[in-house]
Design brief:
Mean pLDDT: 82
Number of domains: 1
Number of strands: 0
Helix content: 55-70%
Radius of gyration: 14 Å
Strand content: under 5%
Largest sheet: none
Low-confidence stretches: 1-7
Length: 121
Amino acid sequence: MQGKGVESELGLAVIGEGNGPQSLQFLAELVRWRRGMDAGNGESFTCYLLSKGKAILPYLERLDPLTLRKQCVAEFNAGKYGLEARDNLESVCRSEMHIRAENVQIIAGIRDGTVCNDEDW
């Protein structure tokens, strides 16, 4: 998730286009990341989740924020995805509270029928 600009946008687009169970699960679990999910990518991430509608709801509802936080910390500590010790953990991984809040907001948006405009992507 360290990729910047075009690389992270392309990666998110590839993941976001999948509709199978594995793709939906992986997409939902990306909520654990803070880095790469800011600014434009964050809006695109939310739009991909909203565009999946009710198909992704079961995956979002089953997410465990504590488990996702631990997973992100483990990936950070292992240096996965080009992460380095000099990176700040808190700028890479969302807190358990932030994961929970983001997930609640996305689920509410899906249930309310929120959609993204073309410029949101």
